[in-house]
Amino acid sequence: TYFNTNFKNKIQSTGTGTEKTYENIGEAVMSGLENTVSLDVGKFFGWPRLVRGYSNLTYLLQAKDAITNKDLNLVAKLKINYGIEYQDKIFTGRLNSRYVSKIKDVNYYAFTFPGVMELEYGEFMLLDLNLQVNIFKFLTAKFMVNNLTDQHYEEKNGYPLPGRTFGLGLAYQF
Question: What's the rounded Cα separation, in Å, for the pair 133 and 106?
Fold first, then answer.
């Protein structure tokens, strides 16, 4: 699918050195392609369970300030989500991956990178695992691991996002 979005009154962070502010840049335009694909192999083979592969891709053709024609900050050109999920009456599982391409931003921390006015955050790929077991009709056990590979990444300078995190839970339905 092709998309084209015209923003009016777009707000973007601006500044140099240690000075940072937000301003209305007026108009901006984003356009690109988006594709979603999903296939339930279980349904295809007549199995009594869900076995589904899926992916979603967003590729930006442009993300610009409509007046200055400058690229917008904090916008990844390519994002891809893909994975596989399984579900039957007792067990549910999902392995999901998320890829984000390089992201540009303004350097608001001149003391960190003196003389550098623009930063570029590296691409990253995350892998998440979610498992769920229905122990009884009313009791479910859950386990999850986000950022399974313990990838260090940032989508904004100075704000590192979590490394590997674990979750464990029980859900009781009344």
Answer: 46
Given a contact cutoff of 8 angstroms between Cβ atoms, the answer to whether 148 and 57 are in contact is: no
Backbone conformation region of residue 9, classed left if phi is above 0, alpha if psi is from -120 to 50, else beta:
left
Judge contact between 23 and 12, C-beta under 8 A. yes
What percentage of the chain carries pLDDT values higher than 90?
59
Closest CA to 10 of 60, 80, 68: 68
Kindly state the tokens that stand for 52: 């589904």
Bridge partners for 52 per DSSP: 40, 85
Residue 73 has pLDDT above 90, yes or no: no
pLDDT digits (tens, 9 = 90+) for 140-163: 999 999 999 998 888 877 788 899
Give the closest residue to 52 by CA, choosing from 97, 89, 98, 86. 86
